[in-house]
Amino acid sequence: MFLLSIGNTTDNYLRLIGTLFVFVVVLVVAYYVTRWIGQKEQGRFGEKNIRIIEGYRMGTNKSVQIVKVGNKYFVLGVGKDEISYLGEVNEEELVFPENTIKPLPEFKDILAKAKEKIPTKNKRE
């Protein structure tokens, strides 16, 4: 009877280690897939000729957008099924905030901060 409980305990530990291993593998794969998708999207939507500068929501499915096309700025009304040209704006008339967008932290930095928060047990205290 004692041997059966030892076998079950060993089996449970092996299952736990296997589950933790699979979890770590999934985290690593998710990290690299996320980086790959991010680089692919950045290349697709990076510094191109058309950029949305600012938008203001006017109601359900309605907004006003300032769009830069080449070196010109256009104001567009965007609805559910249509886009309307509202006018053109000079760059001197626009107010650009100073770097209000913070870059997103990398996944490895977030993971390192999470590891710091996990309490560790010192066996020799």
How do the helices and strands line up, and which of them pair or pack?
Layout: H1 2-45, E1 50-59, E2 62-69, E3 72-78, E4 83-89, H2 107-117
Antiparallel strand pairs: 1-2, 2-3, 3-4
Structure, briefly:
With 125 residues, the chain is an alpha+beta fold.
Explain the overall architecture.
It is a single chain. The protein is an alpha+beta fold and 125 residues long. The protein folds into 2 domains: 1-46; 49-97. Helices cover 44% and strands 26% of the residues. It has helices at 2-45, 107-117, and strands at 50-59, 62-69, 72-78, 83-89. Strands 1-2-3-4 form a 4-stranded antiparallel beta sheet, with no helix packed on it. A hairpin with a 4-residue loop joins strand 3 (72-78) and strand 4. The longest helix is centred in the first third of the chain and has 44 residues, at 2-45. The chain is elongated, with a radius of gyration of 27 Å. The two termini are 36 Å apart. The model has no long low-confidence stretch (mean pLDDT 82).
Classify the helix fraction into a percent range.
Answer: 40-55%
How many separate structural domains?
A: 2
Overall pLDDT: 82
User: Whole-Å distance between the termini?
Assistant: 36 Å
Uncertain stretches of 5 or more adjacent residues:
none
User: Which series of helices and strands comes N to C?
Assistant: HEEEEH
Strand order of the largest sheet: 1-2-3-4
Keywords:
125 residues, alpha+beta, 4 strands
